[in-house]
Amino acid sequence: MVDRKTNRVITLEEYIIQAQNKFPGATGELSQLLRDIGLAAKIISREVNKAGITNILGEDGSTNVHGESVKKLDLFADRQLISALNRSEITCMVISEENDGIVELDNDGGKYIVYLDPLDGSSNIDVNVSIGSIFSIYMRKKPGSDELSEDDALQPGVKQVAAGYVLYGSSTLMAYTTGLGVSLFTLDPSIGEFILSDTDVKIPDHGTIYSVNEGSYHSWDKGLKQYVKYCQVEDPATKRPYKARYIGSMVADVHRTLITGGIFIYPNSSQYPNGKLRLMYECNPLSFLIEQAGGMAIDCEGRIMEINPESIHQRTPIFIGSKQNVLKVKEFLDEYA
Ligand code: AHG
Ligand code: MN
Ligand code: MN
Ligand code: MN
């Protein structure tokens, strides 16, 4: 996309400032926060693209609060994002997949709270498959109060002021929303800038791709089993059978769903009775983006973004994507509940 006035590309920084200028009372703090995340994303992207050369592949040797073995790139991304957020006096605390509790930043006066999945899709790092970073931004419930607590951060997804992801794929792409639609940027490594590629992105109302790890089929609820069977039935009138696509990096699976339409599912199973994906830094931010693009995101009961969180690392099942596809799976879940 080019700026009609100057007939040249629009960078992430310029776009953020143009968006901020539409709100005369804006302080510019959220803009600065988004720019900080953009900087960290460029540094992470450079490391991801050199992963085979620098000693950044493989395990770190530690395990995180989820019992997952932590990869070196998980920690590199975590450190880059937290230090970028620590530089400007805007964010008071970070909650990240790779830290057990809240990470208090130097600026306890900061009014924003940032949730991070610093590196999503870690199991794909060493096999050169797309991975991502996810962020979700809230205002503090009690701005200015000096004590920082988890309680300040436990807010439903509808309270997010911004959310987005970076996808380190065939190119590095950044998507974010502040509640006014979804904008996409592509990193141009030759100038080191994220360049605006799409504004107000809309997800197709129906899609013909379903995305779920069928390895845990045996332990699914009956409604989901029936829904996947429905996807596999030959019926040209409804463009079935659908295609099955599963990358194993949520950011990549959800980004594909945003662009092509369809549905991504991570259900509850015997291994993950409450689902595997984390509400606050995987499901809520991606649900915000997909809803902003005209899609839907639910758990077995209702809207993901209306879940009142009880803990910062809690998990939830998720059914996210095109409205018609999510409504159809909900029909099956309700019928066999
Ligand atoms: P993370 O790498 O941040 O821990 O997230 C991995 C998640 C998510 O990216 C993906 O959708 C899911 O794990 C894949 O899980 P399975 O390997 O169980 O399918
Ligand atoms: Mn992980
Ligand atoms: Mn993740
Ligand atoms: Mn992760």
UniProtKB/TrEMBL annotation:
Cofactor note text: Binds 2 magnesium ions per subunit.
Record-listed Mg(2+) 1 binding positions: 97, 117, 119
Cofactor: Mg(2+)
Superkingdom classification of source: Bacteria
Entry keyword annotation includes Ligase: no
Pathway as given in its UniProt record: Carbohydrate biosynthesis
Entry-linked NCBIfam families: PRK09293.1-1
Protein name (Swiss-Prot/TrEMBL): Fructose-1,6-bisphosphatase class 1
Species this protein is from: Fodinibius salsisoli
